[in-house]
Amino acid sequence: MGEAAVRLDVDEPVISFRDVHLSFDRPILQGVSFDLGPGTTKIVLGGSGSGKTTILRLILGLLKPDAGTIVVDGTEVSLLDEEAMRPVRLKIGMVFQEGALFDSLTVGDNVGYRLLEERELDEAEIEERVREMLGFVGLDPFYERMPSDLSGGQRRRVAVARALVARPQIMLYDEPTTGLDPITATNLTDLIAKVRDIDGVSSIMVTHQLRDAYNVARTFMLRRDDELEPSMVEDFSILEGTAFLMLQEGQVRFEGSPHELRTSDDPYIKEFLS
Amino acid sequence: MGIGDNRCPVATRTLTFLASLGRRFTHKVMTGVLAFQDYVLLSARGIAAIVTPPHYTREIMAQMDSMGVGSLSIVILTGTFTGMVLALQSAASLDAFGARPYVGRLVSISMVRELGPVLTALMVTGRVGSGMAAELGSMVVTQQIDALRVLGSDPIRKLVAPRILAGMVMVPILTVLSDAVGIFGGSLISVTSLGLSWEFYWRSVGQTLVMNDFAMGLTKPVVFGFILTSVGCFTGLRTRGGTQGVGEATTRSVVVASVVILSSDFFMTKLLLAMFPVV
Predict the structure, then answer these.
(1) Residue B215 needs a FRET pair 20 to 30 A away by CA distance; which of A172, A253, B110, B258 works?
(2) Which of B144, B147, B152 is facing A90, going by the closest CB pair?
(3) Hey, is the C-beta of B31 within 8 angstroms of any chain A C-beta?
(4) Which value, in Å, is the radius of gyration of the alpha carbons in chain A?
(5) Given the DSSP bridges, would you call strands A227-232 and A219-224 parallel, antiparallel or unpaired?
(6) A38-54 pLDDT per residue, tens
């Protein structure tokens, strides 16, 4: 990526949840509170139905909480209507589960969708930016292809490119590696680390794939001979910048560093990690 | 009070059953009222998006092409055969009064005022309304609608408004075509099977149809076009439950739109007959 994303005040959380409650037929979130610092990554773990994806939908304003406050980049979003949410959403890149690419558009048009909608750049500039993004995720030759021609892993990478094209400050990943083989999943976690390390983008990754969650925490991009290569840190106690949040039935069960998660005595966490 | 309770068990069970029936009925009514409220809101926002900028011109043209050009063959086929069968049936009835020469008059009035608009709307509902529900339903279950919102687009403006506008423009045009081929089909039967001449048939058509007929025949399809597209979009956007939900939404859109078209046709006819009487 060419330009670095806009960095925020170091002391100010990029995303802040305070005592957030949400219920439909049953309670989904019950008093969830956490902060996401600038340039850091929060990995949200939990079983199916624990409310992980709901957190992302609340940040994006696709759902509204019953109670509590959600602040995104200094803006309280829980009461904003669709129109007022638009500038907030422009700061966020979202990678949906399965990609959620538009079937009727080519890969290039999918990636450039937001730029085409904004109409601030001309077509040549948009194509250049889109090709740059597709190159970043390693899919430059796929510009003219349709999403139906892509594999599951390629669809997720195109989704990452689409989310990155407007240079967001915050990236949200919803189960980005679910259903992928281990090699493709590692390629994707390397890509998530690359986005974090090169641009300092703050991110939240929701997953129940523990191996991939650890990979994101342990992978760092190192420059060797003008080439960026992923490198894995083996010692969990020195990992920084990544925190884990574990949900159980809509409540925060654990929040802490990768090392604290691995050494936790909580029987639920031990069972989850085993 | 449990089943094993021996204080008037039959009366207790009957009361429990009636109470449960009442709760279910109330729930059904409430769900229906809320769904109707959502439908009205969606339609109002769709219309507002049609009359206010920005517009997605490319989407509108694509929908008009898909709905108009794509439906040409079925509309021509159904229109022609309807006109032909109408000529046959009306001749059989009119012969009893020695009124066979009125076949052209009856076919043209029936096609323009009633059958052209209704049949065209039903055919387009089956072909296009169901497709809209399936397409939007698939977009819901694959989170493409959420993606649209996140990427800064209004799904109503981007998806619903172009479809409603295309329906309100293309269904009347298709209806005119259906009317024309229906009257032509009637003329084929009149000449080949009923012993009437071309000149007589077409002269009676020309003498029969007046502006009031066209006013009624062109008002209805605008409303039908709105109904079939708005119902298709509404059922599609309310899809829940994966691919099974998409199938259910598709079926529901055709059933609901067809019933609403046919029932609204009655009320519109009552109203339009008062505004544009048969002369």
Answers:
(1) B258
(2) B152
(3) no
(4) 18
(5) antiparallel
(6) 989 999 998 888 889 99
